[in-house]
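User: My collaborator sent over this chain with a note saying "see what the structure looks like." That's all I know about it. Can you take a look?
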Amino acid sequence: MELSISNYKFVESQAHRIAHTICSKEYNGYTLTCEFDFMHAKVFFQSKSYLKNTEQKCIGMLLYDFENDIITLRKTCFEADKHEHHKSNSLAVSYDLFKHLRIKDRIEIHEVSRVSKKCNIYKIGVRKATDKGQFRHYQKEGYELQFFIGREHFRVEEQKVRKTKRIRQGK
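Assistant: Without extra context I'll predict from the sequence alone. Here is the result:
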């Protein structure tokens, strides 16, 4: 989608196109919703089952780099106990997001340790992830198809966790 105002031309990013595609589909047992920013699209998962927690959970952010025409699927709300397959020591991303990425795109998973106050950033190209990853579907739990990639295939960067100031509203 293009929008032209006088001499300026605005073009919808690839990340937004993917998010629109994902969030406009019907899913069995869950819904995916999106929030859009200038260069980002956040995708949220919500179970339809009244027996499950129906709170929305961020399953990834799509970031578009216009200069290099690369989309990065960034997962920042990573919880190892929920999104890691312990036997294979692999990390998961939603297949609904993964299947729309191109071979030249990237995946980043940010894992924060509350104990060590450090953040491990796992990075991998989609081409390598496609070659090394595998699918798992936890149908009994009503969740979407997951794509798992072994930790040994990622390049890992370590960062210290920075404290952020919370702004109180009201008063």
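A starting point for your reply to your collaborator: The chain has a mean pLDDT of 79.
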